[in-house]
């Protein structure tokens, strides 16, 4: 999770005080603040994740002249899975950055009510530019490669075992 350094206070807040602060400053909808970023990341990200996996798998099938029903070797499954994880995280990282910024803003210091997805994205762009939208992306993409490689390899093994 990305948390701006300035959001930390010298005295940690309890969960109850955070919930009370959100309720007091934003009401019931405050508990869903930042969900547009999650929606964008998850819907688009899932399409990128599965689409990339299938696309890279198709490239391997064409390059090695394999039929659709033939199983790819493990290294090709892992390569396709790694590419899928990297694609998903790289393309949709800015939406996650904006969502995280929205969710970690100090609601008691906001003027004019809560800031929406567009306002936060414009402020982040103005403050840090493209670099700010991708801060921390490298390590996230690096972590996604091995985890997605294993996820898709295990998925393929389980799928084949139930056919």
Model description:
With 163 residues, the chain is mostly helical. It has one domain (5-161): Alpha/alpha barrel (Mitochondrial carrier fold), CATH 1.50.40. The protein contains six helices and no strands. The protein has helices at residues 15-26, 35-63, 74-91, 93-104, 117-133, 137-161. The radius of gyration is 20 Å and the shape is elongated. Residues 1-5 have low confidence and may be disordered.
Order of helices and strands: HHHHHH
- Which regions are unreliable across 5 or more consecutive residues at pLDDT < 50? 1-5
The major sheet is characterized as: none
CATH fold-level topology:
Mitochondrial carrier fold
Output mean pLDDT: 85
């Amino acid at each position: 999770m990305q948390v701006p350094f300035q959001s930390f206070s010298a005295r940690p807040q309890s969960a109850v005080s955070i919930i009370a602060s959100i309720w007091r400053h934003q009401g019931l909808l405050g508990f869903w603040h930042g969900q547009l970023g999650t929606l964008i990341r998850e819907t688009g990200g899932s399409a990128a994740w599965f689409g990339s996996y299938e696309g890279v798998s198709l490239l391997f099938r064409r390059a090695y002249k394999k039929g659709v029903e033939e199983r790819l070797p493990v290294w090709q499954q892992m390569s396709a899975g790694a590419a899928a994880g990297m694609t998903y995280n790289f393309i949709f990282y800015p939406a996650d950055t904006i969502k995280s910024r929205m969710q970690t803003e100090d609601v008691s210091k906001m003027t004019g009510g809560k800031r929406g997805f567009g306002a936060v994205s414009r402020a982040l762009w103005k403050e840090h530019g493209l670099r700010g939208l991708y801060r921390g992306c490298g390590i996230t993409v690096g972590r996604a490669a091995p985890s997605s490689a294993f996820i898709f390899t295990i998925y393929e093994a389980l799928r084949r075992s139930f056919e």
